[in-house]
Specification:
DNA-binding; 4 strands; two-stranded antiparallel ribbon; 6 helices; Arc Repressor Mutant, subunit A; globular; mainly alpha
Length: about 130
DNA sequence: ACGCTGACTATTA
DNA sequence: CTAATAGCCAGCG
């Protein structure tokens, strides 16, 4: 048994004394599991984690996800209406739409076309 | 320590 | 139909 590490240590305590296995970390892992060409909503993620914290905290977690490794595809997370409300928090407001278009997702006027067709429900798919 | 804000969502008027 | 408010929880001044 050398090194058969299925899962890396989930308990990464930061020197700040803050456990990384917070709600944030759970959100990041779930977002990373979003298949390419699919999108999900904040509420869906919150619901998948138990909806204890609320959809707002999911967006807050995304803000901390920048610079994470592996990178968190925050561009695949949109609001309930398929609107790119979070693009304003990206390094550049166009990056989110650009990334989505790279994945065959069409975005018009900050709105994902055929949103429910691209919608990926963590509760249903997982 | 208290209060406000915030990448949301659902409900009521 | 549209508009506004309440509920949610954690970070920041």
């Amino acid at each position: 048994m050398k090194g058969s590490k299925h899962k890396q240590s989930l308990n990464k305590i930061l020197p700040s004394g803050k456990p990384e296995n917070d709600f944030f970390n759970q959100v990041w892992e779930l977002v990373r599991q979003i298949p390419k060409g699919r999108v999900t909503s904040y509420g869906a993620i919150a619901a998948a984690l138990g909806a204890k914290s609320g959809a707002r905290m999911v967006g807050w977690a995304m803000n901390s996800s920048f610079g994470q490794n592996p990178v968190v595809p925050a561009h695949r997370v949109v609001n309930r209406m398929g609107q790119l409300t979070g693009k304003i928090h990206f390094p550049t407001p166009t990056q989110m739409q650009e990334q989505l278009e790279k994945e065959n997702i069409k975005v018009i006027n900050d709105q994902i076309v055929n949103f429910e067709k691209h919608f990926w429900d963590p509760l249903k798919e997982l």
